[in-house]
Design a protein that fits this description.
Blueprint lengths: L1 H41 L6 H20 L5 H12 L2
Helix pairs in contact: 2-3
């Protein structure tokens, strides 16, 4: 009779431990998801226009340098500048 009692107690303890472990893992996952969502909501969205403007300015500067070095003619510089500016 003692062996059955020990086996039953072990099964109950094991089942309880499994249930508690599952609940703890679930709670941790929920806390992690809430933390990630809070960080995403708090992070300001980077303006899309700023990098494009910086890129355009860099291209224009490069074109101006090439023009001043004589690599680009006046017509080539004007055409390339219009293309960068979208004119």
């Amino acid at each position: 009779m003692g062996l059955v009692r020990v086996a039953a107690r072990t099964a109950v303890i094991s089942g309880t431990a499994t249930a508690v472990s599952g609940r703890v893992a679930q709670r941790q996952a929920l806390q992690y998801n809430e933390k990630v969502q809070a960080q995403q909501a708090a992070a300001p969205a980077a303006p899309a226009a700023a990098p494009a403007a910086d890129d355009s300015m860099a291209k224009l500067q490069q074109l101006a340098d090439l023009h001043s070095q004589g690599v680009l003619s006046d017509e080539e510089f004007t055409a390339a500048k219009a293309k960068v500016l979208g004119i």
